[in-house]
Design a protein that fits this description.
single chain; 258 residues; alpha/beta; seven-stranded parallel sheet; 9 helices; 45% helix; disordered C terminus
Length: 258
């Protein structure tokens, strides 16, 4: 069977939906994995190519659930692309982070991508496929949410481990690190504070925040043949945030030169 298949975890969320829709342009089928069955149905209905979308309820922290998802995906064709997108953040500060929060954030944001890769490892070897892990700028610098951030930093390193160990088998592994993304969660914050986006934009050199489609475009590129020589990298999709603080740069640029 020569049909190409992409697998996207956390596919019911805004970023996951955008990634799935973009990958439908280059794959015959896209398997949408998510633990929320109702949200999955909504994601398929809103997709640009619903006939290519295959919703699959899956708990990505469960090896048994992932094994079942991998088996279903194999019946559709050759899994060529795996996108580990599922993630969530809880406590905003280290002081507010307890052991349970730490373990849950690490389980979803770091352990789950590892388990997912292992579940699809055989298929990716056969297709000489690509893994794209959705990390975060929080894995590159300190912006709060410590457990989430530590897990995302670990995910970036896991990406490099896969790239180095599995490169000889033709598997490429890369990460995408988004900054603030305009999702429904952020829209909810904006409903409570209409200035939230304007307040966030001041820290970004491009004076805007990331859209889900920006992340999807980066994933599409890294999974494509155009990135055939790229592996083990973390691509920041952050409107320049990690390059430097725009607000501070603006301040310094107005200082007198001696």
């Amino acid at each position: 069977m020569n049909r190409s298949v992409a697998v996207v975890t956390g596919a019911a969320g805004d970023i996951g939906r955008a990634i799935a829709a973009r990958l439908a342009e280059s794959h015959d089928a896209v398997v949408l994995l998510d633990i929320d069955a109702e949200a999955l149905r909504d994601a398929v209905e809103s997709a640009g190519a619903p006939e290519r979308m295959v919703p699959t309820v899956c708990d990505v922290t469960s090896e048994e659930s992932l094994a079942d998802a991998a088996s279903r995906a194999a019946r559709l064709g050759r899994v060529r692309t795996l996108v580990n997108n599922a993630g969530a953040a809880r406590a905003a500060s280290l002081h507010d982070t307890d052991g349970e929060i730490w373990r849950k954030d690490c389980a979803l944001n770091l352990e789950a991508p590892f388990l997912c890769f292992r579940a699809f490892e055989g298929a990716l070897k056969e297709s000489r496929g690509s893994v794209v892990n959705i990390a975060s700028v929080n894995g590159l610098a300190v912006y709060g949410h410590p457990a989430y951030s530590a897990a995302k930093a670990g995910l970036i390193h896991l990406t490099k481990l896969i790239a180095v160990e599995y490169g000889k088998l033709g598997i490429r592994a890369n990460a995408v690190a988004p900054g603030t993304v305009r999702t429904r969660a952020w829209e909810a914050r904006a409903a409570a504070n209409p200035q939230v986006f304007e307040e966030a934009k001041r820290w970004y050199p491009l004076r805007r925040i990331v859209d889900p489609e920006d992340v999807a475009n980066a994933v599409f590129f890294l999974a494509s043949d155009q990135a055939a020589a790229i592996t083990g990298v973390c691509l920041a999709v952050d409107c320049g945030l990690t390059a430097g603080q725009a607000e501070l740069a603006g301040t310094f640029s107005q200082s007198p030169h001696y």
